[in-house]
Write a structure and sequence with these properties.
By secondary structure, the chain is of the alpha+beta class. Helices cover 30% and strands 20% of the residues. It binds zinc ion (2 copies).
């Protein structure tokens, strides 16, 4: 057993719709009461027994999936252009539920430990950036040390976000200088929300995690974890839905409408319905239906 030392691990990122804090989320989140099993649209308290022990299930909408794809693209841009990873060594998978797993193979980061990976995470999420890196100083800040629009890495991304356009750069630098150091620090924190990539830090830092095998069915959705060749075109509710369409009768309680294989289903209000196997599996995995 002593010889079973940790050798290395692929660098892996998890992007999940639940971490994006989108406003649409409450529209398609369902609360299941742990005490009495009452199912309602997003609630903090059970409407039947007042319990606050609720399990949340989300049926991510197209906006959620599209926003996750944007994060994947932001991440891949940083991996290639900032960290020098070869495009061929990056693979993106639909996780089978609410997001994407991005794998980096054969990179110089393969042997990095958890602590070093957490620093990579900070860089990618744009966390803990200091004003000095972006030209601001506590004493006698200098106009010329602020980043330029076309610079690489975070300097360029900062410029595009804060200046908006090349022509506004000078005016905004004057404002930043006037506002001073501590407000600049606040600005950095605020834009970190917008330009930082929303990855799950714990997943990347965990060097022992075993990931779901591509091709396997995710028990949280009945959808399949799948390699995405073209993330823009990829539609999980069509491309990762492999179960058949044989009709099945279920007792469904799903107050939210959902779409699979280009067909709309629901809302179902605690009723017996006959729906294709793939839709039944989706609901059963979300704990919103049982075999009738
Ligand atoms: Zn209840
Ligand atoms: Zn949504």
């Amino acid at each position: 057993m002593n010889e079973k030392d940790w050798q290395e691990a692929d660098l892996i990122f998890d992007i999940d719709a639940k971490d994006l804090n989108l406003s649409c989320r409450s529209n398609h989140t369902i609360s299941i009461c742990n005490q009495c099993n009452e199912i309602t649209k997003n609630n903090n308290q059970c409407t039947k027994c007042n319990s606050s022990k609720l399990e949340k299930k989300s049926l991510p909408c197209k906006t959620c999936i599209d926003a996750s794809k944007v994060e994947v693209q932001k991440l891949i841009d940083i991996l290639i252009n900032d960290l020098g990873i070869e495009k061929e060594n990056i693979q993106t998978y639909f996780s089978g539920n609410e997001g994407f797993h991005v794998y980096v193979f054969n990179s110089q980061f393969q042997k990095l430990g958890s602590k070093e990976r957490s620093e990579l995470v900070d860089y990618i999420m744009f966390r803990g950036a200091i004003p000095e890196t972006f030209g601001m100083k506590k004493f006698k800040p200098n106009r010329s040390s602020f980043p330029d629009f076309n610079q690489k890495g975070w300097n360029g991304r900062f410029s595009k976000q804060v200046f908006g356009s090349k022509s506004k750069r000078s005016k905004i630098i004057s404002e930043l200088l006037e506002n001073g150091y501590s407000l600049f620090q606040k600005t950095l924190e605020n834009i970190s929300e917008q330009i930082g990539v929303k990855i799950d830090p714990n997943v990347t830092m965990d060097i022992h995690r075993i990931f779901r095998l591509p091709g396997s069915i995710n028990s949280k959705s009945g959808l399949t974890k799948l390699l995405c060749d073209d993330i823009i075109k990829f539609d999980p509710y069509n491309d990762a839905c492999f179960l058949n369409d044989e009709p099945i009768q279920v007792l469904a309680n799903c107050p939210v409408e959902f779409k699979l294989k280009n067909k709309k289903f629901g809302p179902f209000l605690n009723e017996k319905v006959t729906i294709p196997t793939y839709a039944a599996a989706y609901l059963i995995c979300k704990k919103l239906a049982t075999i009738a």
